[in-house]
Amino acid sequence: MKENILIVGALSGLARPIADQLAAQGHALVLAARDGEELLRMQADLRVRHRANITIAPFEALDFDSHAGLIEQADKAFADGLTGILFCAGWLADQRWAAADFAAARQMIDINFTAAVSVLNHAANLFEPRRRGWIGALSSVAGDRGRLSNYLYGSTKSALNAYLQGLRHRLTAAGVTVITVKPGCADTAMTYGMEKLPFLVGPEVIARDVVRAIARRRLIVYTPGIWWPVMTIIRLLPEQLFRRLKI
Amino acid sequence: MRFRTENITGWGNLAAVRAPVFRPDRIGDLRRTVAENRGTLISRGLGRSYGDAAVNAGGVLSHVCLNRFLAFDEAQGIVECEAGVTFDELIRVSLERGFFPAVTPGTRHITVGGAIAADVHGKNHHVDGSFAQCLLDFRLLTAGGEVLRCSRQENSHIFWATLGGMGLTGAIVDARFRLRPVASAFLTVDYQRTANLDQSLEAFSAGDAGYNYSVAWIDCLARGRSLGRSVLMRGNHAAASELRSVGIAHHEIAVGNAHPTPRRRKSVPCFLPNFVLNPWSARAFNSLYYHGHRDERALVDYDSFFYPLDAVSNWNRIYGRRGFLQYQAALPADASRLGLIALLEAISSSRQASFLAVLKTFGPANAGWLSFPLAGSTLAVDFPNTGPALAQLLDTLDEIVIAHGGRVYLAKDARMSRESFDIMYPGADEFRNLKAALDPTGRFSSHLARRLGLSPAACQKRAAA
Description:
The complex is a heterodimer of chains A (about 250) and B (about 475).
Chain A: E1 4-8, H1 15-24, E2 28-33, H2 36-50, E3 54-58, H3 67-76, E4 84-87, H4 95-100, H5 102-130, E5 134-138, H6 151-171, E6 177-183, H7 203-216, E7 220-223, H8 227-236, H9 239-242
Parallel strand pairs in A: 1-2, 1-4, 2-3, 4-5, 5-6, 6-7
Chain B: E1 4-8, E2 17-22, H1 27-36, E3 42-44, E4 60-62, E5 69-73, E6 78-82, H2 87-95, E7 99-101, H3 112-117, H4 125-128, E8 135-141, E9 147-151, H5 156-162, E10 171-181, E11 186-194, H6 197-207, E12 213-218, E13 230-237, H7 240-245, H8 250-253, E14 266-267, H9 279-291, E15 296-301, H10 302-306, E16 312-313, E17 324-332, H11 336-350, E18 357-362, E19 376-384, H12 388-403, E20 407-408, H13 418-424, H14 428-438, H15 447-451, H16 457-464
Parallel strand pairs in B: 2-4, 3-4, 14-16
Antiparallel strand pairs in B: 1-2, 5-6, 6-10, 7-10, 8-9, 8-10, 11-13, 11-15, 12-13, 12-18, 17-19, 17-20, 18-19
């Protein structure tokens, strides 16, 4: 089935290949992001590569008041309305910086969690009465357990996971699927130059899993798949032991 | 801007250096990278230049994440895209619309930016010229942070300096160029064996006008009466009617079917030992290859015709860790025959050549200051890196090329001296003057630039420091 999908944070390193693969499958997209010049380039690119129906819209993660308008505008871009919304905006500040400077920590919380809640609340309110549609968000394996190397980023994703869990609980009755994507490390601008990233994959690998998860209406997806056993073990380690590990 | 430290080398795997690699994925980040960088930078696409053109220990500016198409005018056959778009991607979007790159080198794994910087040519140079001929304009990010539109009318001196300028005028942001309309994804190809060089040259001059594409594989190890024996491969884009007559179903010839005979990609998984390619194995291969061809006409898909080596990824590893080098020279028409004989004799008696050698006719040169092609012939030969023995041979070849008024291709070069370069490229000093004005501190620099004295002295000091 051809869908009408709003991608929020469409310029993120993971959103780009996701949009590319969705457009290749013939889905119509609304791309929302802050940088208008870049959005125009992305729109042109997807039109040339896939002859896809691509609309663009401005999105400011921290301008919470604007989010209702974005959802409304994106929904009106199609005669038959939106069928899915994927939240891809996210920001990773260096752990040491964010630990020393609350402004950086707060910015992460606001983009990764507060903005997601703001956008997806509107999304839920749109889809629930229609009794159709799906809501997805890019979380992270970092949210599965707080670790010394990235617990500030991780806790924003942890909060997002709990929010999505609750949202799923609420929307299941309405037949609206909520998809939690937990990507591992991808070779994008966000992680570029960082050293010793485990199981690093190209973003197109994660995009493939996300697109498949959308098609199959999966609920929770670890991508690449190796992260499910890895995080299961990490989650199960007793805290007494875990707090002494350097991971 | 963030960077990643990587081992950087050319396609020939010679002399890798550790270098910070910047990989912007937004135009704003590209500009910031150039503005904030305190060292030197050289733009790099897929790293298919053989030598040190895209190698710079000071810093490398990767364009692979700036690869967006911006427009495709199907009425005019004009495409606009960012410099990081590869020919592989270009063919994918073009063929289904009934177009093909107007000029393509022997691999799809190059970028549009690289095609401009090396002013690449293909098997159709004798008819269609080099990439410059289909290029309409491009935008160049200069060392000063300006973005300049360059075309034959606007900033034309920078336009012609950038074609063949190996990235030293700045970073190409995006470009507009013409494509060729084609009726199918196949070519009608005539194969013809020749017994020696004279027969090859004769066949070229007698028949090339009838072929849009013309190239010869040449046996560089054959000697005496067989010196220069070749297999000519010449063809034209097949019309739909030609395909129907040989029973290829219509859905297969539809240009929308971009990959008519999907080939299984093979890969060389690791460096082979250095001894695998030696004079005996190369001679045996050449003999088999020569005798394995018949004189015939065949229908060939574009992928097999233009990009035979792309079927094997990392084929450069067959030369082993020592690496290899391609020597490509162009000789003016009036000196072609004697020059080729002298080159082939020097090569075959050295017994260093391998199995990849190509001969073709060039059409007229263009106005590019450092553009390689000139009216006459070109010979390209791969050599395993045997160290001093090879260095000595290539110096001898340089002398032969200079004596016959020819030049060596910078996209393949890793070792030519500045003295030889200055004789071969009369535009060198004009280029240096423009470089001094456009980039006085030498922000855009590479190992090739320093070797050939193409970046200002200031930067050479900084690079040394």
